[in-house]
Amino acid sequence: MKVHPTLNGDNTPRLYARFEVGSAGCFNTLCSGFVLVNTDIPLGMPLVPSRIGGPINSQIMYLEQDVANGNWWVMLGEDYKQVGFWPKSIFTTLQAYATGAKYGGITYSAQGLQFPPMGSGLFPKKNLLENAYFRKCTFLCYVNDEMVTYSLDHIGTYPFQSNTTIYTVQDFIEQGDVLGHLIVYGGPGG
C-alpha cells in the first residue's frame, strides 16, 4: 500500500508493486517488470483505510517464489489469489532465493510539498485499533524440498526510519499465535 500524490493525483492509499534492480526501478505496470495476471485486483486500486473508532480493514498478502520457474508471485487473501509476478529474468540475486524482505509504509511528496500522513496518521503505540501494522511476519523457504517457515525473530530485523519527526516504526518480537512478529508504523507526515 502506498500514498503517492504525484503518481495518482490524490492522498488515497493504493495497492502497488515496485521493483528495483540496481539504479532502475518501476511502479506497477508503468514499465516492463511486473506482470499482472488478475484484472480483478488492479495495481493502483484504492484501498479503504481503517479509521480510528471504525471498522478495521486488513489484507493478507503473500510473496512467494515459484520453485518451478523462479518467478516471484504476489498473492492476496487466505485463498492465495494470484495478482501477478516479477519474472525471474529481471533479477540478478533473486533468481535463486531471497536474502530478506522489507515490510513497512512508504509515502511520497514532490519537492516543496508536505509529506502525507502514513498509516492512521499517529505515531505507533502497539495499539492495533489505532495504528497501521503488519502481523504474523514470516519468511518461507525450501530446505531439502520442504517448505520451512521462519519468524522474523529467527532471521533478525533492521528497523529503518528516514525521518523520525514525521514517521516512526516499532518492531515487536513474537507476540503469540494471533499476532506473531508484529511491526507497527505510521506518523502525521509534515
TrEMBL record:
In the UniProt record, the signal sequence range is none
The Neprosin PEP catalytic domain sits at: 1-190
The family database entries (PANTHER family) matched by this protein are listed as: NEPROSIN DOMAIN-CONTAINING PROTEIN (PTHR31589:SF140), PROTEIN, PUTATIVE (DUF239)-RELATED-RELATED (PTHR31589)
Q: What is this protein called?
A: Neprosin PEP catalytic domain-containing protein
